[in-house]
Queue: 2 jobs
Job 1
Amino acid sequence: MTKILAVLVYPVVIAVLIFVGAVLARRAPRQAPGVTPPARVPRGQHVAAAGTRGQALGEAGADAGRYLLVFIGGTVVVCFVTALLGLLVVHNGPAIDQPFFNWTITHRVHIWAGVMKRATKVGNTWTTWGAAGAAAVCLAVTWRSRRWLPPLALGSLIVFNKYAVVGIHHFIHRVGPPTSPLGTFPSGGVSRVVVFYGLIAYLLWREFSGSRRAAIWSATAVVALAFSECYSRAYLALHWLTDALSGLVFGSLLLAVCIAAVRFVAGPPQAPIAAARPAPPAVQSRAAAPEGSA
């Protein structure tokens, strides 16, 4: 019976997350706070800007430098906080991890473990990098301004996330479970799901929607993916439970840094032009008949 309950945790939590997201989205206003209407560009401004291409490139380079400054500085702070969390996990984690590991091994269902082996691939290195690369190319074509920002944000995340996790692994010396001794603190797969898919969802949302409802649904999808990755890694004993949970913390903090860096350079999200236009007045199908006419 307990084996079935361990399996049912997964679909029940996913269903609860979707239900909560649906309720919040239904009650939310259409436009999220802090979303500004699109700026109107006066006629002739594009022609004038064509003659200052060098100045535009200089401004883009300065903006890119500001983004990297915020992103790298924030990443250093996140690594420091995660390292402190790692010291706490190393000393107090075994009291939670070892009983959970023993219980998982004895209550694992073979068929469900096969399903989780496929589900956990969402957080694999090349899967997340491939998703980030595809999103960077698509967003570089479709963004209204600063088209260099999505490739820079996702590309720098690929580089710094990898070396940040490696650096934390060298600082926090912790061997993984007996079934996966290379699984160390924090879980790289869990953190990648949170930060990569979270950043992709944010970039898509701020460019194509900007509404509160879309933000809630995007956050719900990312949270569901993060729970799926955390559950699958712990269920398969690829990581200690506290390492998987720490991956959620590390990924969330790093995602907050990425979003803050994007907003620092690009400002608050703007509503799409089509959504910002007022609805045209209703056109009467026929003119009002003069008074007294049949």
Note: Residues 104 and 235 are 6 Å apart (CA to CA).
Job 2
Amino acid sequence: MTKKWYNYFVSVDQDAANVERGSQSTNPAAAKSAAQSVAEIAAGMAAEPQFTKPVSEPTSFEQIYRAAEIPEAPHGYSILRVAQMMESEHIRSLPSDVKRSSVLVGLEAAEVNIKDVIQDAIYRDRALDGYERVQQRALEELESAKSKENADLQADIDRYVTEQRAKIQANNEVIAREKERVTGWRLKKQQEEKKIAETVGYFVSENPITTGDVQAVPPVSKTVKKS
């Protein structure tokens, strides 16, 4: 039966782990060398991934990785697989240095260079950053288009409101002119009635002529009576 990677793990006692931690923390040259190695790996890779396939489900990172055509990880050991190794029940509760050592032992047993894993991680990170920029550009284009559409709609609304207000004003002016005309006519009518009433008054004891304002007649009901 094929050995699991964690079967290659060699137990390290606490003192050895402490020594390892101490050597790492007191060796700035080693830390600088590691940083330079990562920088060299990143420098040799394309800064912007090219998405050659559509992504139908943006929440599926696997689709994004496929669309960015990330190269297959050597021996299948991607950064995601290494992350799973870190969370394995066999080592997840161990100190960080021991976890790191055990995973490196497993990678060495599988003939996987840790630089290849780091490169895979950088590919995936750049793919995610690149797709975020794609989504941001799409969002900005959508926002720009919808903002213009909203502005056009608001202009149509403002134009319509202006036109309707103008019609209301015109209607009110027609009503005002008609009221003024009726008021003027009523004054003349009263003068005419007064003249008639005065003349009739010479011949009757009770004058039948009205000289006041006529009460408005209620509108005729348009309700059709059922037979």
Note: The helical segments are 14-25, 28-43, 61-67, 79-86, 96-109, 114-201.
